[in-house]
Amino acid sequence: MAIVYDTFQQEAPSRLPLLFATAADRTVAWRDGAAVSAAQFLGHVRQVAAQLPATAATVNLCEDRYAFLVAFCAIVLRGQTNLLPSSRAPQAVDEVMAAHPGCHVLGDLPLDVAPPRYQRMSPLEAMVESSDFVLPSIDADQVVAIGYTSGSTGAPSANRKTWRSFHASTAGNLQMLRAELGQRFEVVATVPPQHMYGIEMSVLLPLLGDIGIHAGRPFFPADVAAALAEVPAPRVLVTTPVHLRALVDSGIALPPLAAMVSATAPLSRELALAAEQRFGAPLLEVFGSTETCVFASRRASVQEEWSLFDGVQLHPQPDGTLVDAPQLDDAVALADLVSLHDGGRRFRLRGRRADLLEIAGKRASLADLTRRLLAIPGVRDGVMLQLDDADTIGVRRIAAVVVAPELDEHMILDALRRAIDPLFLPRPLRLVDALPRNETGKLPRAALLALLQTASEGHSPN
């Protein structure tokens, strides 16, 4: 089969390829136990693109990762923008649709209560390959996605991504991963593809590198093991600290891994060491945000400092950090406080300005308090936060929500007294069965405050 390159790609450097492929049979994905070639994939993309209504933007709600990948490219190929809500919750979808009047919604599942203008994708059957393999190119300045933040620190915000910026951010991720794994590897991901971390590691990697992605989104440890067994070595598991903890605690055996990748929440050194010892593979933690995409990495088991990707520069500010990166048109301000090392090529996190506490002249950070809470034997999950309202003497109290089935409140507070200044002991401390984490393991502040409010009213949230 001959490979034909889009003529625009050769004539205009302002266009970039939709797909990396040196041959039509390059494996893009693994679906139902079988490899999906680049030629089959592009056939599915064109099939779905032909069925899309004329609109400026489409909410991509596809659950199956391969269906999402196809829909993502079909929307881009039609010159439209993928709208990526912070969650699949009806309210989150409604808010995104209200911000984009006239947009449509594309999904792969039947919905009992579907949003307006919902279109279910036709089944992706086996495609008949043509004699020529045409690789499409996309206007580099096309806004291909608008991702919404999780709202873990406030209201979700919209972030526009051009095809040029995605190419640039993926180049950094590929360089980081290839240094550990080589050119070709297969990915199984537990994170949803709508999340920016999921987009980067399970959508853009198979599109722009010689990488295959498993179509599923395994959740339970046994499902993760089964998915990994369906792809050949070398295997990479893209996941979160919450899923890593579940895998380590489950005692389940996984097929041999070449590496693990983690993001979305702080990863303790203890968990990183446990995961590496349990599964015999290095654990790479990546650092970024919906606003910036990934721009640094480290091996958390042995490194405290983060290494910046090529072309990235950080500029510490009194209230955060400015990030300059190849994928950004302008510097982006993050709330994270950092200290630079090794000529500015490495950095350490010092918390966030909003996380820094000062009570009676003493200082602490919520991140460090949470780390000490999680270090207590018997605490499976937990978080410390500062309440919005001040008490009668003007102090905003510290609260904690904790998962510790074998402990009670007094046992946890006694352990904390040995680890932190008593001024920062949480009042109230609420024991629950599970924290209200979203699909990527983050904790929306509104959900935490609602949980604490329910507790203060004397009602059990469980």
Automatic annotation (TrEMBL):
Q: State a single Gene Ontology molecular function.
A: ligase activity
Could you tell me which residue ranges the AMP-dependent synthetase/ligase domain spans?
Answer: 112-301
Q: Which UniProt keywords apply?
A: Ligase
Q: Does the keyword Ligase apply?
A: yes
Question: What is the protein's given name?
Answer: AMP-ligase
Q: Does the keyword Disulfide bond apply?
A: no
Pfam families registered for this protein in UniProt: AMP-binding
- What does the record list as coiled-coil region(s)? none
